[in-house]
Design goal:
Structural class: alpha+beta
Largest sheet: 4 strands, mixed
Helix content: 55-70%
Number of helices: 10
Order of helices and strands: EHEHEEHHHHHHHH
Distance between the termini: 76 Å
Strand order of the largest sheet: 2-1-3-4
Radius of gyration: 25 Å
Shape: elongated
Length: about 250
């Protein structure tokens, strides 16, 4: 026999509480029969909060005992709470490079129905640069705040932090299109070399514990080997293209 739970959540014409939906889903996945009580107006919500002396909704009750909100429900079922998982993570980097590698495979296959290792590597680097530029451009202000804490050029000339993502995007897109390579290759070499030296100094010489701005500002990706690899990829790509166009 299924256990029963009472769920009170906000469902108005202008706002449906996402945590209410997540709480309902979590209860059902744990074999609970949910007695759903949507609070359809602000007045109903405020009355409920006053009645039960709580500050937020949703609220879940099991066997007459108030469990609490969504995070409390996660704790009740012994589930991990993403909001409580502080510290560093490589998840954004894994997501970017997994998708860009898949796109590189798709591009390579589409062109001649084969997957040549050199062509695949070139596409992977160029697409990765373009996608990483998007993440930086999404919030230039936040990116600049993180970037200037370790980039040697941006420390001296703050405007470079605002220019850098545009250069990265132009280089990535231009190399895919094979346009203006005489200009784009030196640019790739320049920004990659400066960034690589900056990361190496900050992490391996100064031993600073920093977050990387490679996937945009406010990320929890640690500055280190992954960041250095990204920059060395740009250096490698710049050199490779220069050799090819000689």
């Amino acid at each position: 026999m299924k256990k029963k739970a009472q769920l009170y959540r906000m469902v108005t014409k202008k706002h449906i509480c996402p945590y209410g939906l997540k709480s309902r889903d979590l209860l059902k996945r744990n074999n609970f029969e949910v007695e759903d009580h949507p609070l359809e107006t602000r007045e109903q919500t405020e009355q409920f909060k006053t009645q039960f002396n709580v500050n937020t909704t949703p609220q879940t009750f099991i066997d007459g005992q108030r469990i609490g909100g969504y995070e409390d429900l996660l704790d009740y079922f012994g589930k991990k709470n993403p909001k409580k998982e502080d510290g560093t993570t490589y998840q954004p980097v894994i997501a970017v490079f997994t998708v860009t590698f898949g796109l590189a495979l798709a591009f390579s296959w589409h062109i001649d129905h084969s997957v040549q290792s050199l062509a695949l590597l070139k596409f992977f680097i160029m697409i990765s640069m373009s996608v990483l530029a998007i993440l930086k451009l999404r919030d230039l202000y936040a990116f600049s705040n993180q970037f200037i804490t370790y980039d040697l050029l941006a420390m001296r000339w703050v405007r470079y932090a605002y220019i850098y993502p545009f250069i990265e995007a132009i280089v990535g897109i231009g190399m895919i299109a094979q346009v203006g390579l005489w200009v784009l290759s030196p640019l790739s070499l320049f920004i990659g070399s400066v960034s690589a030296l900056s990361v190496f100094k900050a992490v391996y010489v100064d031993k600073r514990d920093l977050k990387c701005a490679c996937v945009g500002g406010n990320s929890n990706v640690p500055l280190g080997f992954v960041s250095l690899t990204e920059n060395l990829m740009m250096v490698f790509m710049g050199l490779w293209i220069l050799i090819e166009i000689q």
